[in-house]
Amino acid sequence: MSAASPDASGEGAAAAEGPPREPLPANVKLLGCVSLLNDVASEMIYPLLPQFLLTTLGGNLRHLGLIEGVADSVGSLLKLWSGGWSDRAGRRKPFIVLGYSIPALARPLLSLATVPGQLFALRVSDRLGKGLRTAPRDALIADSTAPEFRGRAFGFHRALDHLGAAIGPLIALAFLAIWPGEMRTLFALALLPGLAVTALVLWGLREQRASAAAASTKLQLSLQPLGGRFQLFMLALVLFTLGNSSDMFLLVRSQQLGVPVEMLPLLWCAFHVVKSVVNLVAGRVTDAIGPRPLIVVGWLLYGLVYLAFALATAAWHAWALFLAYGVVYALTEPAEKTLVAGLVGAERKGLAFGWFNFAIGVAALPSSVIFGYLYDVYGPLAAFGWGAALAVVAALLVTIIRIDAPRAA
């Protein structure tokens, strides 16, 4: 196991003082607003893609699993590279600017797609942008924030991200209520918030001394310099992700349970409102008690919710379970990122977040493909049961990781 890093994130930290009261850094606030606008653009489209693929483009569930799995996995290769290079270059901003600009241009082109292959190419382009920006952005949030406030910083960022993901479906719902069936026009309108995102990161974002100080670090994309504790967490994360299929399958399951197509954007909106609110709370709790309890509890509850999706029989079950899934999802988001930042030193944060996002993405392809196959051939119980079982195993692995108390950076 590796030695404790200078700002390792631990349990039982900062409990006595209560919630931190210092203001969040300007970079954290700006990146939160950027994520809000970016997800408005993205989530105007995302909940409608299964219907667009299955009806308008003539695809099937296996196409859906392949498109989502490949797109996420390809993007994840870039997350590892961009995270490591942002350490080596001592600059995060160029990766973040380019990573937000590519999807801003790719998403509106969905309005021109006529076959599943074109949807595949555009989704890959969108995920390439995500791959470029994600690890450097998360590392910049960690660089900009004191260790004892990182849970709150990541919770704030994810809360605004999910708020944007709630607003996007509402826009889609209102638009399609006025102009039924005009999905292509709606897709084209996603260009507007995308341009606003590009302008904000280009002119508002600032580099940090922590990232500049790491510029002398030799580029090394292996796990070895990150230590044994981090490697064990990556193993747990991969196992969990192998059972965590694309959320598009939850939308498909909701349709099968009786949720009308026109209500899917509203369901998706409610899901993200729950994630937004719970992230704000979970971030503060992470700072108070440490990241591990929230990860373990969240992954175990995930298994229960997935099983319940398989056994559900009515439309209201889909609504209740989507909201419960939102709570479970949000419990773990700030905790996972706080743990990543705490298990490595300042000079390796880009690489660590690159591996974190790469591990999720590299497991996304087999996850979605396996889930789609099990769903098509054996039904929902086999598919959701697979996800639940892996979540339990992953949670047990997290319980054995040694985590040290944080120290001032």
Work out the oligomeric state of the chains in this entry: single chain
SSE ordering: HHHHHHHHHHHHHHHHH
Largest sheet, strands/sense/barrel:
none
Number of domains as seen in the coordinates: 1
Give a description of the structure.
This protein is mostly helical and 409 residues long. The chain has a single domain (26-215, 226-398), classed as Up-down Bundle (Growth Hormone, Chain: A). It has 17 helices and no strands. It has helices at 26-43, 49-56, 61-89, 93-106, 116-144, 150-178, 183-189, 191-204, 209-213, 228-242, 248-256, 264-289, 291-311, 315-342, 349-362, 364-378, 380-398. Helix 3 runs antiparallel to helix 16 (364-378) and helix 16 runs antiparallel to helix 17 (380-398). The longest helix is centred in the first third of the chain and has 29 residues, at 61-89. It is globular. It starts with 25 loop residues before the first helix and ends in an 11-residue tail after the last helix. The model is unreliable at 1-20 (pLDDT under 50).
Report a brief summary of the structure.
This protein has 409 residues and is mainly α. The protein has helices at residues 26-43, 49-56, 61-89, 93-106, 116-144, 150-178, 183-189, 191-204, 209-213, 228-242, 248-256, 264-289, 291-311, 315-342, 349-362, 364-378, 380-398.
Any chance you could write out the topology, listing elements then pairs?
Elements: H1 26-43, H2 49-56, H3 61-89, H4 93-106, H5 116-144, H6 150-178, H7 183-189, H8 191-204, H9 209-213, H10 228-242, H11 248-256, H12 264-289, H13 291-311, H14 315-342, H15 349-362, H16 364-378, H17 380-398
